Amino acid sequence: MLRTTLLHVLGFGLCGTAIGCGSDLDLPEYPLDGINVYVGFDEPICGGTFDWIEERLRWLEVETGLPASAAPISFYWLREDVFDHCPSGACTRGDAFYTPLEVFSHELVHGHLAQLGRPLPWLTEGMAQMLEDSQWDVFSPMTPSIMLEATDSLDIDYTAAASFVQYLRDRFGMAAVIELYAALDRVDAQATPEVFLAVMGESWGAVEDDFLDTNDWSPVGSINCDFPELAPDDSGTWTLPVAPMCEDAATVGPFLGWDDADSPHTKRHVILEIPEAGMYSLTMTSSATASIEILDCDVPVLRVSRFGTQLAEEIEMVPGRKRLVLASNIADRAVGEVVIRGPLPAP
């Protein structure tokens, strides 16, 4: 979008001093609505990126019922420099976080909820994984009581934690989970069950038992489907060019990875409205490797992830909105197209 290009070319809102930025980094600053972005690279910022960042924060406010803090969140969008601040490659310090774009939506949850405090990892990472703009299958057998004992985020399975927090939200409501989050600020594992009982009205043990007995282990995550819809032609065919289109309003990026060896790429998002259940053909022809991901917007029952230069397969889809994400390396300048047709005639 135009404002992205203008900000990048004109250097609008540059940070005058490192201290003025609230960090030891002196970086170009892009003040958005409720969040300031500090950019640690020279590549162009793609057309839909800043809107996606703002919309994700607005969505978090609505989903959690928690307004943005009075002071803007600070997002330090870094690459290899992130390790100067975070040994793990991504971290949050209060309402500031340091990360490449790859895990922005996860760290944004931490930044938004920092105004409530810092509970133990099972809750902080469970919330972040549940509310990030991704979808993850859950395979871990790690129980809530095992995760409760962990004081380091690296010692828990994020998807298992998200599955438990998702269960709490579905059973007690988001308002209760937010109250619990604030009540557990700096509360240790030994004291957690007492606080849990006071807030939720049921014991930790009883709730955990019910979770383990009844949870269906459905995928976790909260994908954003507020992207342009790609309409099919009269024959029921959706066609999308493979070429990276950084200027497009539906393209987010660049995704730079954590060091200079990673290949910068973009992600273009479109929404498909599938009218009928059935088998659909998915083909891709590309001059360079690209990846396709298809996710259900409404019910997390479909997750297709493929990459290559030549794809041809059939996938089963139910009616409803699907988010198709097409990722391609910027330097490859790939040409080709993705074609989806259906529903196919029954054999």
Would you summarize the structure shown here?
The chain is an alpha+beta fold. Helices cover 28% and strands 26% of the residues.
Describe the structure.
This protein has 347 residues and is an alpha+beta fold. Helices cover 28% and strands 26% of the residues. It is built from 9 helices and 12 strands.
SSE blueprint and pairings:
Elements: H1 2-10, E1 29-31, E2 35-39, H2 49-64, E3 73-77, E4 91-93, E5 96-99, H3 104-113, H4 121-131, H5 144-148, H6 158-172, H7 174-183, H8 192-200, H9 204-214, E6 237-241, E7 251-255, E8 265-274, E9 278-296, E10 303-317, E11 320-329, E12 336-341
Helix pairs in contact: 2-3, 3-4, 4-6, 6-7, 7-8
Keywords:
globular, seven-stranded antiparallel β-sheet, 9 helices, 347 residues, disordered N terminus, alpha+beta, five-stranded mixed β-sheet, 28% helix, single chain
Radius of gyration based on Cα positions: 21 Å
Q: So how many helices?
A: 9
**Helix-strand string:** HEEHEEEHHHHHHHEEEEEEE
Please report the distance between the alpha carbons of the first and last residues: 45 Å
Overall mean pLDDT stands at 90
- How many beta strands in the DSSP annotation? 12
Report low-confidence residues grouped into runs of 5 or more. Answer: 1-22
Structural class: alpha+beta
Shape annotation: globular
Proportion of β residues? 25-35%
- For the report, how would you describe the main beta sheet? 7 strands, antiparallel
In which range does the helix fraction lie? 25-40%
